[in-house]
Amino acid sequence: xxxxxxxxxxxxxxxxxxxxxxxxxxxxxxxxxxxxxxxxxxxxxxxxxxxxxxxxxxxxxxxxxxxxxxxxxxxxxxxxxxxxxxxxxxxxxxxxxxxxxxxxxxxxxxxxxxxxxxxxxxxxxxxxxxxxxxxxxxxxxxxxxxxxxxxxxxxxxxxxxxxxxxxxxxxxxxxxxxxxxxxxxxxxxxxxxxxxxxxxxxxxxxxxxxxxxxxxxxxxxxxxxxxxxxxxxxxxxxxxxxxxxxxxxxxxxxxxxxxxxxxxxxxxxxxxxxx
Amino acid sequence: xxxxxxxxxxxxxxxxxxxxxxxxxxxxxxxxxxxxxxxxxxxxxxxxxxxxxxxxxxxxxxxxxxxxxxxxxxxxxxxxxxxxxxxxxxxxxxxxxxxxxxxxxxxxxxxxxxxxxxxxxxxxxxxxxxxxxxxxxxxxxxxxxxxxxxxxxxxxxxxxxxxxxxxxxxxxxxxxxxxxxxxxxxxxxxxxxx
Lengths: 275, 194
Prior knowledge:
The complex is a heterodimer of chains A (275) and B (194). Chain A has helices spanning 8-34, 39-59, 77-100, 106-126, 142-155, 163-187, 191-194, 204-225, 229-248, 255-269. With 275 residues, chain A is mainly α. In chain A, helix 2 runs antiparallel to helix 3 (77-100). Chain B has one domain: 2-Layer Sandwich (Alpha-Beta Plaits). A 3-stranded mixed β-sheet of chain B has the order 8-1-9. In chain B, a hairpin with a 5-residue loop joins strand 4 and strand 5. The chains are: A mainly alpha (275), B alpha+beta (194). At the A-B interface, helix 3 and helix 10 of A face helix 2, helix 3 and helix 6 of B.
């Protein structure tokens, strides 16, 4: 992706969608595994998801053709994401609706959890593009782990201490582990290669550190002190920073990049200057 | 290379940009981003490296990343290997811009859709050469049909050009000739291998 492309709508879309699907998935998991039923959380997740999908339309040059996005099913990762987004929203609405009416269905809850988790996986797979140098490896898993971490953190104020807190710690730990690997991969890209194509690379350490502390470290500290909604707000900010950093640190391996690398090589071949 | 594509003779290309201009005029892209561009190598004329020009556009890959990624099926690889883009099916999602490692698809702000080099399919179908090839004054840029056999010495890799996504671009290069340029070229290739 070129450095000048406008990614604002993608940042907003994926932040909202990941937060929504993460909340629905975590809510379903806690309901089925720990008996923590919270249809309000599922409903909130559905609202976030719906808002994200609405924003995603603004990214399209031809919004009226959005329905064509399903034509690539079986081939295009983006088609899979679009289809799963619709299914995730539908399943979340059904599960939340049944729960709010006082007739919760474990099957509907499980379906919402599974489909929303699959949607989070599909978001990661969309960006597993071979020509992108900073979207490789663990980057494909961070929408899933980040979304689940946000969902679990947001549900903590409703839970009693015990298994739910342990599960939340585990999710945060997995997210921190995977993100630290992404951090290492992005930090490993040599400066002179990355800077001309993407000025955000200069501040990549601050950007990656902000995401790590906001989504993993700070919520953990806040939850350990007292499970309040403040932790969820901080984690939400972390999700936004995560998505911003994801797009801002895109570094595509283009022919221009390759030419720049060869220019550096030619410079290195130059004989040392004679005094 | 299983379909139509280009052959670029690095010895003959002088970086004049006639191919870019011809492409712009032929395809009505005078004020929008060009589909073809010329990238100079060894721009600072360092004495240790060869100077040559890479004239690049869409490479009509064997396995086009744009086609695989497109959610709406706007890309089509024809039987002769030319990868064409159908504007009427394009969402303007710009995903092909992310997937193509050669920056071939360009976003058209006015139309809200992507566009890219179609190897002048309309000219090829009429038995003519693509506009960029026809305009090249040194015959450095040549058209290779699906049935054509690239000349001896033509390779698919050259310093400054990589296929990081394994797309199989239908672009072949003839290395710079001449004693000094070929020695510099080979020394650069060796240095990059190390």
